[in-house]
Amino acid sequence: MINLDQLTVKLPGFAVQDVSLQVAPGEFFALLGPTGSGKTVILESIAGLVHVTAGGIRVDGKDITRLPPEQRRIGIVYQDYALFPHLTVMDNICYGLRYFDLDMQQARQRIDHLVELLGLQNIIHRRPLHLSGGEKQRVCLARALSVNPSVLLLDEPLSALDPNFREEIRRVLKKLHGELGITFMMVTHDFSEALYLADRVGVIRNGRMEQVGSTEDIFLRPANPFVAEFVGMKNIFAARVADQGIEFGGLSCPLPEPAICRQGVLALRPEDIVLQRENGFSDGYVHYAGVIEQIVPAGLWHEISVRCREACFKTIMDRKTLMSHSYNEGDAVYLGFQTDAVRVF
Ligand SMILES: Nc1ncnc2c1ncn2[C@@H]1O[C@H](COP(=O)(O)OP(=O)(O)OP(=O)(O)O)[C@@H](O)[C@H]1O
């Protein structure tokens, strides 16, 4: 269990301010935020690698705010591996043991178990130079877990990996978390990673916590336009409350309940928007006539921009559907969405 109580870390030109957070025992928590928002500073303050200016950190009920790193029983894994090139895999895994007061027989048993769990049996005598990215990251996980930590901190553990190994390490992390039952806290700027791995998420902006909640909550019910945009709501419009709903981009959107629109923003996820050639939308859908402005291939999907009056909507479509409807730039279409997909801030 991790407990941050108004954690404040002041650095030259940047500060983490009053971050309070509770991560339950055995939980997988993801700390999300754009680059430079302070995620690593928070992680490193938990590990004892940066000085905490004010507030406190407790792990499993114990105040560790001023303890040196080696007395915290916390493992940390970085994106760039940081393995010793001159040591074998086994020596890298065992390197940290000397700094901890551990029962060596138990430590050896634990390492044998980790080597098996992480599938490292065939590479324990190799040096890091001869390992793939996925293998290096599995070695780092074994090294961080060798000291039997109660908390494992992961700083963007997937971002240096190419896509195939990323998938592999994602599965490894899920399996490790399931089998070891310890608390995981992972920093990432990729919401899809958090969606796959984490139970709960905290979104950081500029050193402050913007929202904490279940991954589903953050995804479906972002608390403000910043979080909405961060979790992929690509349709964000200036809006205002009107007689029967809300107005934006020269359009009117009736809503079943009166909207509270304090920040004057309406947001929609691209995947909640449907396109049709003819207007066949059923009740419950809000729909507008528009024109396809742009079709951009994006991997397995195409991103389609549709202009309806002054509002330019973004939606996504798989290649097969796009082909079967023969949609092209310049085509007149109807665009619709259900009112419960609309978020108003
Ligand atoms: N030791 C330090 N001294 C001064 N400034 C620092 C120090 N460590 C980090 N910073 C600054 O604090 C800010 C937050 O950095 P941090 O590494 O926590 O961001 P982040 O959210 O992890 O970003 P990224 O996703 O790019 O890793 C940055 O502006 C960074 O330059």
Automatic annotation (TrEMBL):
One of its GO terms (cellular component) is ATP-binding cassette (ABC) transporter complex. It comes from the Bacteria. SUPFAM superfamilies: MOP-like (SSF50331), P-loop containing nucleoside triphosphate hydrolases (SSF52540). The keyword Ubl conjugation does not apply. One of its GO terms (biological process) is quaternary ammonium group transport. Keywords: ATP-binding, Nucleotide-binding, Transport. InterPro entries: AAA+_ATPase, ABC_SmlMolc_Importer, ABC_transporter-like_ATP-bd, ABC_transporter-like_CS, Mo/tungstate-bd_C_term_dom, P-loop_NTPase, Transp-assoc_OB_typ2. It holds the Pfam family TOBE_2. One of its GO terms (molecular function) is ATP hydrolysis activity. SMART domains: AAA (SM00382). Residues 1-231 form the ABC transporter domain. The keyword ATP-binding applies. This is Tungstate/molybdate ABC transporter, ATP-binding protein.
